[in-house]
Write a structure and sequence with these properties.
143 residues; alpha+beta
């Protein structure tokens, strides 16, 4: 599972400012989480489409904490296809070879189809995701 964590501490006790920052961070984390899910799905190997359709995301929010996570679930007959396709090395089938891979709105690299599709989607785009989160934070503070 790929995960984004962003902790923020407020020196100003203004409830209005805190609410504005929290909403901005929730929006930014949702943006990058959905982008990560899309890019990883586009970079996952393809046979029937079951793996790509079973990408899930969650957003967790606390008073000064927002976290987004993305994961894949594709288990058939006790075999964890999602884990195997992510972690193991294999030859891509014809349908997978025709896929282009995923490209983030926030990063710039195209993530290749195949092994490590979720980890690679995060690794290739982490800086772009962090820049987006920082930009939303600055906008919320009107900096």
């Amino acid at each position: 599972m790929a995960r984004f964590d962003f902790n923020f501490r407020m020196n100003d006790n203004s409830k209005v400012l805190q609410g504005k920052v929290k909403r901005a961070m929730q929006e930014a984390i949702l943006d990058v989480t959905l982008d990560l899910k899309r890019v990883a799905s586009q970079s996952a190997p393809h046979d029937t489409g079951y793996l790509e359709r079973n990408a899930k995301h969650e957003i967790y929010t606390a008073s000064n904490y927002v976290e987004g996570s993305v994961g894949f679930s594709a288990v058939h007959g006790g075999f964890d296809y999602a884990k195997w396709t992510h972690d193991e090395h294999y030859k891509l089938g014809e349908k997978s070879q025709r896929k282009r891979g995923g490209k983030s709105r926030y990063g710039g690299a195209t993530v290749p189809v195949g092994t490590g599709y979720l980890k690679n989607a995060l690794d290739y785009n982490k800086q772009g995701y962090m820049n987006h989160i920082k930009d939303k934070y600055r906008e919320a503070l009107d900096i």
